[in-house]
Structure formats: structure tokens, C-alpha cells
Amino acid sequence: MTRRVLVLGGTGEARRLATALVERGDDVLSSLAGRVADPVLPPGRVRVGGFGGVEGLAQALAEVDAAVDATHPFAAGITANAAAAAATTGTPLLRLQRPGWTAGPGDDWRWVDSLDEAAAAVRAATSVFVTTGRQGLAAFAGLPGAVLVRSVDPPQAPLPARCTVVLARGPFTVEEETALMREHAVDVLVTKDSGGSMTAAKLTAARDLGVPVVLVRRPPLPAGVPVAATVAEALTWIAEKDSRPGGD
Ligand code: NAP
Q1: Phi/psi of residue 169, each to 5°?
Q2: Which of 66, 137, 163, 234 is surrounded by the most beta carbons within 10 Å?
Q3: What is the predicted pLDDT for the residue at 247?
Q4: What gap in Å lies between CA 132 and CA 150, rounded to an integer?
Q5: pLDDT > 90 in the chain, percent
Q6: 235: pLDDT strictly greater than 90
Q7: Nearest-angstrom CA–CA distance, 215 and 130
């Protein structure tokens, strides 16, 4: 049977999931927020832009057999909306979220709960590398030292007074991250706990260079929504959600 699956996307996992679902013949609709000007599109049908809150998302959920919230670990708004909408429609919903990072030998990590806390933690630094994305950069606007910001699209004001912007889309190699941090004499790195291998090279580079890292903790997950850590787990979960009578 052809399953109708809504994938809430904006991540590499969401693209890989959509690719695998299309390959096995499912009817996939991927949803992107529209934050990135030139996104890498997944195969299958794609819609772009918000649903207009829980109610709009519930309408979209009512039209599918299952949904996977494969949005970024820090996209807490859409994740909460998906849980609330699925609770009203009864549509099976899975959260696909890669595991967070854990420190290894040689890592000098400090955990904080928010971007504001991260900014306070690096206030005395002379050259901060901020990799938390272009949303929320206002938290770092008051930093007195040099601030290197990397994002896919140009960030908007307010930005730090001594800000250098690098526009780039990962993944990056350890060599590239090491060279960038050396070039800008970075003395502290700020990152969200995004997890996964795509953006982990900067952590290896920081360890190799002896640069401390400030990590922002993930927001909590909504209660009652099952969680998969890998695309393979999500594929198995979807295959088990055959809600149509007489389906295979
Ligand atoms: P958010 O704060 O959780 O969501 C804010 C609103 O944006 C949602 O209420 C929804 O609007 C809309 N939205 C978010 N994701 C959507 C999606 N996949 N499809 C349709 N509408 C969506 O989201 P965010 O943190 O700004 O992230 C936006 C997108 O960027 C997500 O798709 C996420 O996977 C991706 N992303 C985020 C980060 C990050 O650090 N936050 C990093 C990398 C990628 P309505 O209420 O109108 O439906």
C-alpha cells in the first residue's frame, strides 16, 4: 500500500527520511519553514511556509496516515505544535531527533540553558566563534570582543560591534574548521547541542586547538510523543503504522 506521510523537515535527517520513503513508494509531503533562501529540497512533494499554528497543522495531519517531526532539535515551536495537533487528530506522530553530543577526553565544554547564558559566559573572550545560526544572534550583540558569526544566509541586525560574518553551508571538515579558528584566533566556540556528525567537526577542531566550547542545552521534548534517534528507526515505525483497513 502507499502510505501518506507528512515529514516536518529542515534537517538532513528529514531529507534522508523523505528520500527513503519515496524510494519505497510512499506518498511523502515534506514541509519546510522557509527560513533558508535556497534550501536543499528533498524528493517527493514539498510545501514551504508555516501552517498557521496548531489548527492549520492539524488540518495537514488529518490528511496523512502518519507524520514525522524531523525538525531541528532547537525548533521547539513547531515540535510543540505538532504534538498538540496530533493529539487532536489522533494521527500517529513520531519525533525523529538525533542524539546530542557528549564530551570526550580532551574536550573543555561548559553547558548553558540559553543563548543569553551563552553570551554571558563568553563576555570576557577576545575572539568568539558563534555557530548557533542567524536566529537569536541578538543575544550576542552586546559582546565587546571580536565575534565570528557563521550562517547560511546573511544575519540581520543587531549584530556585535566587532562582527565578522562568514556565509557558508556545512558540512565542514576538521581541517576547514581548524583553519578558520586559527585565522580568527578564536578563543571560545559557542554552539547549540545540535548533535550528529554534519556539524561536529568544529568540536574536534576546538579540542585539537585547546579552545573551550560553550554548548546550549536542547529544549525538552513534548510528553507522549515517541522518539526515534535514526532514520532507520523512523522507517520501521512508519511501516508499522498501517492505519487503513485491509492494508498490507
Ligand atoms: P520554530 O521556532 O520551532 O517554529 C516557529 C514557526 O515556524 C512554527 O510555529 C511554524 O509556523 C513554522 N515552522 C517551523 N518549522 C516548520 C516546518 N518544518 N514546516 C512548516 N512550518 C514550520 O522553528 P525554527 O527554530 O525557526 O526552525 C525553522 C526551521 O528551520 C525548522 O524546519 C527547523 O528544522 C530548521 N532548523 C532550525 C534550526 C534551529 O536552530 N532552530 C537549525 C537548523 C534548521 P506555524 O505556526 O505558522 O505553522
Answers
A1: -115, 125
A2: 234
A3: 42
A4: 8
A5: 92
A6: yes
A7: 11
